[in-house]
Amino acid sequence: MTALHQPARADGPLRPPVRIPFPVVDEVSRHCLQEEEPETVHIEVHLPGRLEPGRLRGAFAEALRRHPRILMREVPGRWYRRRYEWELTAEPDVEVVSFPAAERDPLRAARTRALTEAPPLSLSPPIRVEVVEGAGPAEGSEATDAVGVRLRGDGGPQPRAAQGTVLFLTINHTALDGPACLRVLATAAELYGGRDNAPAAAPTRAGETPPPPEETPSNWSPPARVAPGTPEPSPGNGLLVTELPLPHRPKGSPYTVNDQLMVTTALTIAHWNKEHGARPRPLRITMPVDDRPRDTTMPIGNGTRLVEVPFSVAELSAHDPGHMPALLHRTATRTRALKSLPRPQLGHGASLLTAPWAPVAARAALTRGLRRAAAPWTSTTLLSNIGRIPYALDFGEDAGRAHAVWFSAPARMPRGLTVTTASTAGRLHLALRWSRALLSHGDGAHLRDLFEHYLHTTEVTP
Length: 462
Description:
Helices cover 29% and strands 21% of the residues. It is α+β, with helices and mostly antiparallel strands. Strands 8-7-10-16-15-13-11-12 form an eight-stranded mixed sheet, with helices on both faces.
């Protein structure tokens, strides 16, 4: 794992601060930072009630102390140093929680900041929490800057009242990932509301892991890219979030909702590429796998490992209605087999790149060069399915329990598109995030509609 277990803190003023060398994922991310496309993870939590500012700040301050690995900043150093290092701090360098002044469209403004302004690595902790109160209905906030949300249900749009609160958590992804920050948020919710936010038990899967299927596309051949839509002149990422019904899955199905989302993502991109005249090619979809416990012992940092799920052209071009159950079953077999294989988080090559055999400046230049050279072999897209939010995120009587939680992951080229999903209160919360060098807001809306269509097609009987 990249994330390290919470170390002992320095107790006295004469003891030097605790320092930790950057783990592999952190260092690779640090090498490849780009100012025009910040490596941020955005988490958006919708609550029905209001939060008291002083109480919330106190709850977050205590939550940070209970998860001290999040209280860290990058140690400045010379170009010839062999390692980047994190320095653990006893207290935050900055106030984490803020209440932005009233704005014309506060949801859009907060989402834009989450995509464009990464918390600095030089200040502890590298996260930011913005509290938007009375933001109004999410419906209708689709904007020209490609930051919007649509709430959908079986009966069409369902806007919510304006009495609630939205928490926007922005994470510098070089330091930690979404599930780790969500763990800290759950602790803050429990401290604020006084209610149990212990994680729910993870679902169990019966049966042994089957062997990987034969005749899967080779990882040595370049996969399909997401076909360009209408790129925008401004740099950075665009974002669109949507609420959908969870897809129906017959009882006893050999596949999971994650497998349905994987197939949906593959079919969506195959349809999009066909519409845009791209030559059919196999797809590869990167899937983060997180094996960490969800209780208070969860290691804080970047703790997921990445696997790549392949799809052949034939699998994605079949039009036989009876083809879907077989595709879902094969996908389930692949994902279970891939998740069961032991593998370093970013593969064996990343471990060699981050070994301290040369100064960080030299290894950074080499890493960026290799990343550019390997771009044609990079997976088509990334699907990060958080799954059912394991915590109640209950902030007590006044603020209430979260009824919607969205995540989004960075979408730099060459992928240029990431799909992030989570489920709360029996609903699916989908975030599409893209590089504006590849797609526009209108393209994102079309991809959302395709995703909704193909998600429905996975609701089949065995």
